[in-house]
TrEMBL record:
Active site (UniProt): 351, 355, 579
Superkingdom as given in the UniProt entry: Eukaryota
Molecular functions (GO terms): metal ion binding; serine-type endopeptidase activity; tripeptidyl-peptidase activity
Cofactor info, note text: Binds 1 Ca(2+) ion per subunit.
Residues the entry annotates as binding Ca(2+): 624-625, 647, 649
UniProt-listed GO biological process terms: proteolysis
CDD domains: Peptidases_S53, Pro-peptidase_S53
Peptidase S53 domain segment(s): 279-669
Signal peptide extent: none
Protein name: Peptidase S53 domain-containing protein
Entry annotated with the keyword Iron: no
InterPro entries: Peptidase_S8/S53_dom_sf, Peptidase_S8_Ser-AS, S53_propep, Sedolisin_dom, Tripeptidyl-peptidase_I
Amino acid sequence: EQVENLKRQFDYVSDPLHPKYGQHMTYDEIHQQVLNKTIENGQIVENWLKKEQNGDELRITSTAYKEFLVVETPVHVVNRLFETTLSTYQHQTKGQITLKAKQFQLPKIIDDKIDHIVGLSQFPLVRDRRPRSILQQQLAKKRQSNAPRLFFLDNDGTHFLFVVQLICFNSRNASNAVCDHFQSFQILLQNLLTLTKPLIRTVTRTEANCAVCRKATGSISASCDTYDLNDDSVLCGFFVDAVGGFFQPYNVSLRSEFIIGGKQMFSDYTIQPFEQIPDTTPNLLVHLYNVNTSNSKERDPRNRQAILGFNSYYNRASFKFFAKHRGKNYNVRIGKVYGTDFSNKSLDETETSLDIEYIAAMGSGILTDYFSPPSTSENGYIEFFAQLAQLEKNKTNIVPLVYSISYGGNTRGFKIKLLHNIDVNFMKMGLSGKTVFVSSGDDGVSSDDSVCRQEFQPDYPASSSYVTSVGGTQLVPSKTNCRYISEAPNRCLEEIVAYTNLLTRCVITSGGGFSVYDSAPSYQKKAVQSYLSSAGKRLPPSKFFNRSNRAYPDISLLAHNYAIVVAGNVDKDGIDGTSASSPAVAGLFSTINDQRLKLGMKPLGFLNPLLYKLAENQPNAFYDIITGENNCNKKTCCSYGFKAQKGYDPVTGLGTINHGLFMKLLTQKGILDTQHANIYATITRVSERETDETKFL
């Protein structure tokens, strides 16, 4: 009953056609008026714990309305309270040690008062989901060949940059030293536009700058880590002169030269098609999406934004270097950090650096907080919601209004009860005026195991009906659907689906599809039905997905070739992932919230009903993505997936955003005009109960 009421109130304040639109409730109001039974249940559980303490050490920390109880106590007390035995386990590859119970018992007095327990029977989160780098693309697949393994290829307009793993003539990886007989790399550069005679370049053993990963420094050492290479592997990094500048398509052929027994011998060729596009930087995003950053120095102090991170290292030095060099025009500001795991330097920092750098740059001038919940369970979301509730408890805190989450997994890997609990908390966030963006995944219709199955594997929480799911795109040279930016003067670029592609070196495929459990929410039924009707025979077989369920993503943004800073001061480009598009778009909407607050308007809150209504009445607010599909994953391309087309599709959603037009439409008190972006008209809402003119905003 409580959850039904929560859902009803959530729908009211999120529906731009409802009289209660934007009338968000405070954390206190939600628990006093909607979830008022929660505190009673929490008190019963807390009383039971204290009664059963029996003089043992037992510390209980509760949130204001006791929806979360955090219990700290010795092992023997846990064993007694829950009639169990905690055993010690160690992660096979990470070495992490934890205590877990195979089973436990709850007494009847509290059994129906508890929805979920974390840290008792689940294994802690050991997450290694990083945004993928061009360095990790399928060029690196193991194969029975003595061709050098080309991990990275780039063109700065005057030089090609190569990063290559050395393979000896006998097809074995070079180990602990450069191969004895290795002499040089030979390179053929075939311009596919001019079709002139290939350019031949030779890079000597000395010029190849090869190093054993164990002993490597600088960029070679960082690349060894990025590729996950063994310590004994040999990696080489070098430049060769380029002719033709940017945007020239090439076939690049690379082979190794050996002298064996006085004879010149060559390895097999590695052949890589290549076409340069600009790095994705804050400047490029600003130009591509019509962003105005003129107000970044005068932000509303009530406005903050946040990143949610799991098992990742947060390197302040990287952020400061990014702020000085990549974000110097964007007034990037870091706020508070909640949690402790973020300080573990043994954890990967790529995800955290990417997320914080781009939400801070695109949300220029807005303080960015970072949540790092303790990894006591298999997902980490419950711990985050407990952190957020504790933050709400202290009324002096300024709680962020916009959140970006770059993590997720196969929906079928979550227990239904846990999904329900997470969704309830997402509804609470929306009802209190918060906006949650989630990356839609990087494996198309597959899950992260990259297997083609008879049923698609939708991502969660991307497929939740209570978040805004963000897909990914990429830019390609084109002759149609042209977009022009100053980073590529006079060059027609088309924004298409981000999908695994050797030519563009994109190594992810935008996640999308249909939820396993959630039926289609009312806000998207019309758009999704239009897609299903028009797609016709282009749809995958019906057994692969449930066409009646929630479709995702909702919107998209560039997800290819991001330039970030890691390791304190190391520029790293070629980062791909919807874990880039989500924080970037979150920052953009933070700036809209900021302007609304200055004008005395409410924050946007849960966006989806507004987004789909905007797409219907103001289609120019979106850049429609009509090229590409999501049948690929990081290892292979499957027979079926969804294809992009005009209007909504479960590949890139409604498209990418025209931020300037969004800002204009959403920061003027009035009613949107269906014909002209700068004129307002009436949208009439008719129901059985009422006929009135309802403000769209």
